[in-house]
Write a structure and sequence with these properties.
- The structure is a single chain.
- This protein has about 300 residues and is an alpha/beta fold.
- The protein has 10 helices and 12 strands.
- The chain folds into 2 domains: about 190 residues, HUPs (Rossmann fold, 3-Layer(aba) Sandwich), CATH 3.40.50.620; about 100 residues, Glutamyl-tRNA Synthetase, domain 3, CATH 3.90.800.10.
- Strands 1-2-3 form a 3-stranded parallel β-sheet, with helices on one face.
- The N and C termini lie far apart (about 45 Å).
- Strand 8 and strand 9 form a beta hairpin.
- The chain is elongated.
- The relative contact order is 0.18.
- It binds glutamic acid.
Length: about 300
């Protein structure tokens, strides 16, 4: 049984990179933001490697990410966890959803879904699934996925930076995938199980995951897990607003080029998050900059932070 989150509990935050590429400046901002928000209240900051998708892993990247974090003084509490070691826990949660009749097998291929005229709302993950297999699938077809039946109601939560956010799951994603036909668990299920297992009560991550949060909240409700507090940070973009990609590996690919610039990048990340580090901090070690950050962190300044480039 996982205890419910209460405001009296110490903060347990986390950073959960996927080891599909080296950290870039956007991941550094998320790491710094989640570290500050956990540490300012004397909380813990956990590191989890989201390594479920074996096709997108890059050898050596997990170590590379850990080395980079350490070079910035971003030291995690306790053991690093890896999603690839939690398959039994995901299976248990999936079994609970199955027993409760909340998931159903689906034979639809991506092409069938995107070609459906009743799926007019392309969301982050493509068009909303129109529910074709909800009433039962043709027995002769292979199971391509297991989907969670979503309710018609609006799911709302208060994000620390974005305020009240509401979403109707049927319009945005429809019945979403919890497990694929090949046995791989979906991110939405894995992240909810992991956060609950680790007692995470504060999720601070990039704004690109804001739209996934209602699905995760719905799963928490079905699985009787507590709901963490959420804060979605502004996104770092390249020049002209372009999304960052693996090529923007200005941090770790190349510790060589970062070595000696950690302080400058840390201060830039703090400023990007709306904080106002004093000029005297330049030249101080990373540990002193982070200490200043957690002592002086002003969450309300995050509200003024917007997507954009980081000036280092
Ligand atoms: N592993 C995810 C990513 O790198 C983040 C998961 C999360 O913060 O919930 O985008």
């Amino acid at each position: 049984m996982i205890p419910a989150t209460t405001s009296a509990q110490p903060v347990v935050g986390r950073f959960a990179p996927s080891p599909t590429g080296p950290l870039h400046i956007g991941s550094l901002v998320t790491a710094v933001g989640s570290w500050l928000m956990a540490k300012q209240g004397g909380g813990r900051w956990l590191l989890r490697l989201d390594d479920l998708d074996s096709r997108r892993q890059q050898p050596g990247m997990a170590d590379d990410i850990m080395r980079t974090l350490a070079s910035f003084g971003l030291l995690w509490d306790g053991e690093v966890t890896r999603q690839s070691r939690h398959l039994e826990e995901y299976e248990a949660a999936f079994g609970a959803l199955q027993r409760a009749g909340e998931v159903y097998p689906c034979s639809c291929s991506r092409r069938e879904i995107s070609g459906s005229s009743s799926a007019p709302h392309p969301g982050d993950d493509g068009p909303a699934y129109p529910g074709r297999c909800r009433g039962g699938m043709n027995d002769s077809s292979p199971v391509r996925s297991w989907r969670v039946s979503v309710p018609e109601e609006e799911i709302c939560f208060t994000d620390r930076r974005r305020g009240e956010c509401c979403q109707r799951l049927p319009a945005v994603c429809g019945d979403f995938v919890a497990k694929r036909g090949d046995g791989e668990f979906a991110y939405q299920l894995a992240v909810v199980v992991d956060d609950a297992l680790a007692g995470v009560n504060q999720v601070v991550r990039g704004d690109d995951l804001l739209g996934s949060t209602p699905r995760q909240i719905y799963l928490q409700r079905l699985l009787d897990f507590p709901r963490p507090d959420y804060c979605h940070l502004p996104l770092v973009t390249g020049e002209g607003g372009a999304k960052l990609s693996k090529r923007d590996n200005l941090i770790s690919n190349h510790l060589g080029s970062v070595a000696g610039r950690e302080q400058v990048l840390l201060l830039a990340a703090l400023r990007f998050l709306g904080q106002k580090p004093p000029p005297e901090l330049s030249g101080e070690p990373c540990s002193a900059i982070l200490q200043w950050g957690s002592d002086h962190f002003r969450p309300e300044r995050l509200f003024a932070a917007v997507d954009g480039t980081v000036a280092a």
